[in-house]
Design a protein that fits this description.
Largest sheet: 3 strands, antiparallel
Number of helices: 2
Strand content: 5-15%
Shape: elongated
Number of strands: 5
Strand order of the largest sheet: 3-4-5
Radius of gyration: 54 Å
Helix content: over 70%
Distance between the termini: 126 Å
Oligomer: single chain
Length: about 210
């Protein structure tokens, strides 16, 4: 260790030693000073309150005196403001006049684009209307009810009922609904029966 480092170490140790010795003294001083400070606060309280009472009217009086001065300043400023407005009005009008040709030119250049947008919007609206009508017609077509009857002699056959009877007859033979993929029915009124072919393979007939 160099002589410089040794000296620094000794100084640091001395400072630490002084701190340790000073701490009890400081704590003791705080304890003794506490009551004194509190007593000073108690005594100072009435003095501060009294000062506030005396200062209060002075502040109010100052406000009252300043109020008229502020109002007077406002009144004096109003003509100046009005005069500034009057002087500014011609400048504003002149700026508007100079800007008018520029605005018209901008409108002229942008009008074709605006007209094109309007035209495209009109076409889109027409297409949407047409598509909506097409959807409405298709829904009506799908949801409308149709029934077909075959009349022959003294009896009447409803084709929808015939489809149901064919399916029932096929299932009665031991088949399952999942086995049915295609059904062709040939109604022959003269024979009073309907012949059927299921899945292009199984055949049969049902009587009226």
């Amino acid at each position: 260790m160099s002589a410089k480092d040794d000296a620094v170490k000794k100084i640091t140790e001395s400072i630490d030693d002084v701190k340790k010795k000073a701490e009890p003294v400081i704590e003791e001083a705080k304890k003794k000073a506490g009551p004194v400070i509190e007593e000073a606060k108690k005594k100072a309280g009435p003095v501060i309150d009294e000062a506030k009472k005396k200062v209060g009217p002075a502040i109010s009086d100052a406000k009252k005196k300043v109020g008229p001065a502020i109002d007077d300043a406002k009144k004096k400023a109003e003509p100046v403001i009005e005069n500034a407005k009057k002087k500014a009005a011609p400048v504003i009008e002149e700026a508007k006049k100079k800007a008018a040709p520029v605005v018209k030119e901008v409108q002229k250049r942008t009008r074709p684009a605006a007209d094109s947008v309007k035209k495209q919007a009109g076409k889109a609206a027409a297409s949407a209307k047409k598509a909506g009508k097409g959807i409405t017609d298709k829904v009506a077509e799908l949801t409308s009810k149709s029934e077909i009857f075959i009349q022959y002699g003294d009896y009447e056959i409803k084709t929808e009922d015939m489809v149901g009877r064919v399916r029932e007859a096929y299932l009665a033979e031991g088949h399952t609904p999942g086995d049915i993929r295609e059904v062709q029915i040939y109604i022959k009124p003269s024979d009073r029966c309907a012949y059927y072919v299921i899945n292009h393979r199984d055949t049969g007939k049902i009587e009226f």
